[in-house]
């Protein structure tokens, strides 16, 4: 019988939640790496037993852990993320130039075809790749070396490369997003990059329509249609139908268009989920009601999904990497909160149930659908 | 034989107890102790100092003989009591945060 494995990264360790295909009863395993910040855990689509975890600490730096048995046991692999050449500078908060300094790995993206290849998005923003299952890491330096690099500026959470989307149809194509530089695309497997921010309008920067400088929070795509991208920007939910060459706003009737995650349904390319958050000054749901919003029209028309979610006195946030879907026939949707809850829906969001209630603040949620 | 006490998280990573012992050639310095620790326990590489610059991590401190040695240059010989193993070299995760 099929099953589901939910990989949860939290402020104080990693947890692995498992269930059969009914998704009613859940077993929680963890914490792994107790006391460490786990920014992200993700499994290889080629070998589901191979998992990668980003383990970091303000005291002791960055480690990468790998499991080859579905999270039962872990081993540290390479943690040397060295910028290629002279690191150079980017723009600091006060407008001066500041040296690029590695701080942590925000996101790990295993290859769609090779279990030994995995990408890492890091702070200060850069993209690394390992071709030996995490043993060694090489920077794809064309990204950071882009002519706009010196203009990139950190967002409130640091200058992080948080989104890596690998095109399942064109293996040469990679999308990434950086807070607060924006989105960039490579059409040659990461050698060269082009900003793809046309149509984004950010009122909080000197030139709202600048080529670079937008605070993109998350991008997602449906694997059958990788030219269509959905973006949760700092403010605004956006859509591109031309691989990011241009964007249009699809916030429509959302109660607020600020938020962090955005997720496309596993089987319906026009079905998209967001979690509206009141504002960038108040990182909690409007009216204290935790609501996932679903659009079945590719944006603009949104419906609130509330059944099973707290509708009073809820003041949690849902971070950018903390939402995912499974691939079962009835698509499951999952998200974690800064209050330590992980909610799951086994029916595309119609109803929800908490599958973990009292974990540390959830940084990331990924889902594996197991045969 | 140098005695080194590690903080809890590094003990867990290295799968060791409260104290480890490592052989260090003279002169014994902060740099040579960290070199020895990273050689004996590769998982500790980068946890006490930056991998590239070898700068001590801001919230890692080094103590011995009742003294905070963190600000010593990494190639300065440490007290004989550390070099002879009479006193342990103590790595501490600074108390920080709230």
Features:
heterodimer; A: about 375 residues; mainly beta; Methylamine Dehydrogenase, Chain H; four-stranded antiparallel β-sheet; about 40% strand; globular; B: about 100 residues; alpha+beta; Ubiquitin-like (UB roll); five-stranded mixed β-sheet; about 20% helix
How does this structure look, described?
The complex is a heterodimer of chains A (371) and B (98). By secondary structure, chain A is mostly beta strands. Chain A has one domain: 7 Propeller (Methylamine Dehydrogenase, Chain H), CATH 2.130.10.10. In chain A, 1% of the residues lie in helices and 39% in strands. Chain A contains 1 helix and 30 strands. In chain A, the strands form 8 sheets. Chain A has a 4-stranded antiparallel β-sheet, with no helix packed on it. A 4-stranded antiparallel β-sheet of chain A has the order 4-5-6-7, with no helix packed on it. Chain A has a 4-stranded antiparallel β-sheet with strand order 10-11-12-13. The model of chain A has no long low-confidence stretch (mean pLDDT 97). With 98 residues, chain B is of the alpha+beta class. Chain B has one domain (2-93): Ubiquitin-like (UB roll) (Roll). Helices cover 22% and strands 20% of the residues of chain B. Chain B contains 3 helices and 5 strands; from the N terminus they run βαβαββαβ. Chain B has helices at 8-14, 30-40, 80-83; strands at residues 2-5, 19-22, 60-64, 67-68, 89-93. Chain B has a 5-stranded mixed β-sheet, with helices on one face. In chain B, β3 (60-64) and β4 (67-68) form a beta hairpin. In chain B, 29% of the residues are buried. The mean pLDDT of chain B is 94. The interface between A and B is medium-sized, with 13 and 19 residues.
